[in-house]
């Protein structure tokens, strides 16, 4: 009998490393693991959650827990500005977009403040899921003033990096970004594809500025922390 959830994690990690569970293979069910280790379902769920946080497995709602393919873990420092596309490509993965929607609306109070807008301005909302090797890793919502890109922005938009699109189509350079890291709350509306992963999420609110210090666009990014980890160098 194994009492501690950390011991169960160690055993399962060793079995994965030894090839007893192959990449992409489904783990035994929670009930089967409870019987094997003679512990409660709460202990097993805590163990599985920790393995998700370590990036060793991922969960699919209604299906089970699967061994994660190695090499799909991305690391970055938040000391230097980089786009999501760069982050994915630097991990030797292929980026992609899912469920892309572009629509116009009036800015809310936070967007008016952060982007220096008025209540009469109009913004484009670019709503999409960013993928790495076809696996959803980031839910991204970009807020871009129409006054900057014009009414025909949806026709000029290209999938991938928004900063690259702005540079190539409009000659706009993003020099820096001011980022706030927040907790994900029940008020945050997340797409089903990201919810079904059962993965821990980090929420980033970023204002992107041009070389003159003028705000260009605002982004809300919900990143899977089992796939993307961030580090800060402190001296």
UniProtKB/TrEMBL annotation:
Residues 2-70 form the HTH gntR-type domain. Keywords: DNA-binding, Transcription, Transcription regulation. One of its GO terms (molecular function) is DNA-binding transcription factor activity. It holds the Pfam family GntR. SMART domains: HTH_GNTR, UTRA. InterPro entries: Bact_HTH_transcr_reg (IPR050679), Chorismate_lyase_/UTRA_dom_sf (IPR028978), Tscrpt_reg_HTH_GntR (IPR000524), UTRA (IPR011663), WH-like_DNA-bd_sf (IPR036388), WH_DNA-bd_sf (IPR036390). It comes from the Bacteria. GO terms for biological process: negative regulation of DNA-templated transcription. This is UTRA domain-containing protein.
């Amino acid at each position: 009998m194994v009492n501690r959830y950390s011991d169960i994690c160690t055993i399962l990690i060793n079995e994965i490393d030894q090839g007893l569970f192959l990449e992409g293979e489904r783990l035994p069910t929670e009930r089967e693991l409870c019987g094997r280790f003679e512990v409660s379902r709460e202990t097993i769920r805590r163990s599985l959650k920790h393995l998700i946080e370590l990036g060793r497995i991922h969960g699919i709602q209604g299906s089970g827990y699967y061994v994660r393919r190695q090499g799909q873990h991305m690391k970055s420092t938040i000391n230097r500005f980089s786009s999501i596309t760069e982050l994915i490509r630097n991990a030797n993965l292929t980026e992609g977009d899912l469920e892309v929607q572009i629509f116009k609306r009036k800015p809310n109070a936070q967007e008016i403040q952060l982007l220096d807008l008025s209540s009469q301005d109009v913004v484009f909302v670019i709503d999409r899921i960013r993928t790495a090797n076809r696996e959803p890793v980031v839910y991204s919502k970009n807020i871009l003033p129409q006054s900057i890109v014009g009414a025909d922005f949806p026709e000029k938009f290209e999938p991938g990096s928004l900063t690259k699109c702005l540079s190539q189509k409009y000659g706009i350079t993003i020099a820096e970004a001011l980022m706030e890291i927040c907790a994900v709350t029940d008020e945050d509306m997340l797409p089903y594809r990201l919810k079904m992963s059962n993965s821990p999420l980090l929420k980033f609110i970023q204002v992107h500025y041009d070389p003159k210090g003028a705000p260009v666009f605002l982004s809300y990014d919900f990143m899977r922390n089992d796939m993307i980890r961030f580090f800060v160098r402190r001296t």
